[in-house]
Q: What sequence folds into this?
């Protein structure tokens, strides 16, 4: 299990990252989730990931829920239990209901099968699909 | 490279699958893409995948583009070049422009980093994220 | 692409490995396949892999074809095109016909789906399945 | 951990799937294993997987044990603990003894090494291995 | 294949990233390698990756060659041919000779086997290995 | 969980492997770690892995710590928790301090991102990187 550092024991740079996240969520910094307690060992990595995540997940031309589903799809493909759980939670908070979750998993499973078919039969890429 | 079977050489069951796909796309069965030419060796698997794909990708509570992005995210995580190319093409046909593609990749990269952080630090799942 | 060393240019230790493989197959050492031409750079690794492969693939309580199918299944799951091609060839030489290949792929795809379902839903292991 | 639905709380479609599985195994539906309790949330996916699994795993030209070993090989390559445990159990029920399990793991490890060698050295596919 | 943007056709932000890399290498910006020609589509991602890469790979308490070997090990495990080739080149430039390359691959293969043994046998983590 | 065999219950071949490891570490064979208790079921595999690991990890032109970092990098990429924990422990014993661990993870994350960028954009290998 990770060596986790509680908020009160974090150094100032790590605390500042947690403060920013807690403020955006309207939550207590002491309740910050485990990934940040683990990252607090290495403030450089922590600051970099917090900034990258914030920029990537902010609604843009793709809305917030779509972005969560993309994050969740990658996490399922990569078999990251922590991320499946945390971003499943985020997706539900952003509007994913049980029916959407079922549709989402159906696509993940179809993609998984399509990926494996392409591999098993060594299918060459069609020229028609290439970007111009 | 895959052993590919051209439409004219397919057996009736395989032809029927291709006919259904070509009709839905308003395309010529002879122009069917390579994955179906490869699957034509095994009509059982071909019929099963065509049916699963059609059901999974049909717009429901999640729209067609969102489903393509989920499919594409899984394919990138799994490093399936055929699927990245074919479903990148489908996503563009369903409305993904260059800016959305950039946002999409940013989420994929953030997810990839988040997945690896959770692994590298062995972060335990927070109870707060669990489904009730 | 790999830096490949032709048989005539290999050092004595690498040549000895190739001689052993060629003799077992009743083939010309000059026709040895690419993986050995690549490994010839590092005779230690080459000797180790040749010995491990020979011991693992020899018929035992599991017959030669079953072992090829297991090897092929791992290679498909890992998306190793070289190994899918070379061990697909070996499996056909040991008796895999087109119908068996179809059945084999159907199992690989079912396993792939089962694996992903277990991950996506985070299914806990049943106590009943544990070894005593 | 998965949100699991006990048999008595399943909807009729999910119950029907479990009844079919329990009947085939001569077992009590209440003892159904966790993957089905998790899938009961989404009857479409559950029915699809039950049908695909039943068709894929039925003895054909490949016998039942060989199919279990292929399933197990994929699950080990994909690092799916649930599937390693459940299909390890199934393989033992279908005749895998300790010696066969040792031979099986030796092949999995050799394949894993062969896959990684092909990747590390970027070995090009030999023309001789291609299907005609 | 990637849609590649040549240096002369890049927008100013992308050009600035390439200028920085070329200057550090004492090379002509027009000879920049393909990954940057591909990333030039999305300057945000390009700037972020250039900065992250520069910070991560700079010699620190770990020297430059050790960092290249860690990068190469990840790329082999992930089967990224582009990265195996580019960082293999970088490692050789930073001092990796043929003998070191052989030792490196031997460790990668041993790790791969150790990983798969832990998975296949479902080995529980020893308490003695946990960080205090 | 693995079926683990305690040292006192191992057969002579397995005991001999453990004796060799314990002697090299100046430790009590009864305290051998879990991977060897699991492997004791299959002495052939156990002997093979012990010999391969010993040869691969011995200091050569690459020092012991560098080799541990390569092993750890592969294990993180492959998401092997057992190996991350055990070889994290070994790396700390061989001199990895907290700062080096932070630098190491930064490289792993940069590599992971580079790998995924190459995949997502389908970047073709530059001719300049090829080995002569």
A:
């Amino acid at each position: 299990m990770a060596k986790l550092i509680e908020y009160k024991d974090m150094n100032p740079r790590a605390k500042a990252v947690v403060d920013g996240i807690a403020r955006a969520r309207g939550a207590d910094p002491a309740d910050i989730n485990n990934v940040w307690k683990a990252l607090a060992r290495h403030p450089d990595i922590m600051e970099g990931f917090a900034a990258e995540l914030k920029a990537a997940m902010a609604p843009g031309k793709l809305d917030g829920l779509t972005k969560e589903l993309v994050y969740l799809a990658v996490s399922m493909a990569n078999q990251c239990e922590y991320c499946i759980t945390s971003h499943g939670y985020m997706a539900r908070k952003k509007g994913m209901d049980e029916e959407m979750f079922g549709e989402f998993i159906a696509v993940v499973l179809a993609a998984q099968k399509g990926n494996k078919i392409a591999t098993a039969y060594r299918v060459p890429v069609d020229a028609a699909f290439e970007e111009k």
